[in-house]
Amino acid sequence: MRHYEIVFIVHPDQSEQVTGMIDRYRQLVERDGGNIHRCEDWGRRQLAYPIAKIHKAHYVLLNIEVEQHTLAELESGFRFNDAVLRSLTIRRNRAETGNSKIYEEALREQQKKLEREQRQKMELESRRKELEQAHASKSKAETAVKAADAEESEPSKPAAEASSEATADQEPDSAGGSESAVVEDPAEKAAEESLEEPAGAAEPGQADDSVPEDADDPEKTEKERPAEGSAPDEAATDEAETETD
Which of 36, 50, 168, 188 ranks highest by number of CB atoms within 10 Å? Predict the structure, then answer.
């Protein structure tokens, strides 16, 4: 058996079939007692030159140890497979088992990609937690505000009820007061009483007050009497003088 290194390029639209193709080639090599010392999937890479207007393709590397007829059958499968754009077979002196430089670079890229995805995932998780915490704190604040508003509104409710009750109590009182004012108005009552009393009637106190004060003074009465009696004498004298003339 001889050692060979094979590189074949798969159409980018058939990248999903690469795993199945590798499994078939592995079975073909191992069927006649051959060995696969190295199998590397390099993924999609830029082509050195366009092939059928294609700029990228899927690369696969195989280091095998097989008989000549097995190699011929393998190369025939490459030629008649439309998914394989190109293939290259190189004879090697010994088995190559270590990773190639291209594969190591691909592994580093994959590792970076995984780390980037994990970092993004962690950032998203931290943002989600921050949003949840902010939402929780906001909910607590709203609950506290509602509780404070409820506590403030509770004392005001009894006060409002008391004021409404006082207003309701005052309304009947005011109505009753107005009725009593209408019934017990002193002016109206006096007018009614004056209408009921006979005209010209005077109270006993008023009759005593109408007596002249001079009646109680005898000296003043005696002095005023001659004056009253002289008045007729003067009148008679005037009449006599008139007749004489």
Answer: 36
What region does 67 belong to: left with phi over 0, alpha with psi -120 to 50, or beta? beta
116: Cα within 13 Å, side-chain hemisphere: 6
Residue 19 · residue 39 · CB < 8 Å: no
Instruction: Give the closest residue to 4 by CA, choosing from 42, 43, 35.
Output: 35
DSSP 222-235: HHHHHHHHHHHHHH
Please classify residue 59 by burial: count the beta carbons closer than 10 Å to its beta carbon, then call 0-12 exposed, 13-18 middle and 19+ buried: buried
For the full predicted model, state whether its pTM sits above 0.90: no
Does residue 182 surpass a pLDDT of 50?
Answer: no
Domain boundaries of the chain, sorted by first residue: 2-98, 100-168
Q: How far is 9 from 86, CA to CA, in rounded Å?
A: 5
Tokens linked to 215: 């009646």
Report the CATH fold assignment for 2-98. Alpha-Beta Plaits (3.30.70)
Containing 182, the helix (H) or strand (E) segment is helix 101-183
| Residue 63 identity | N
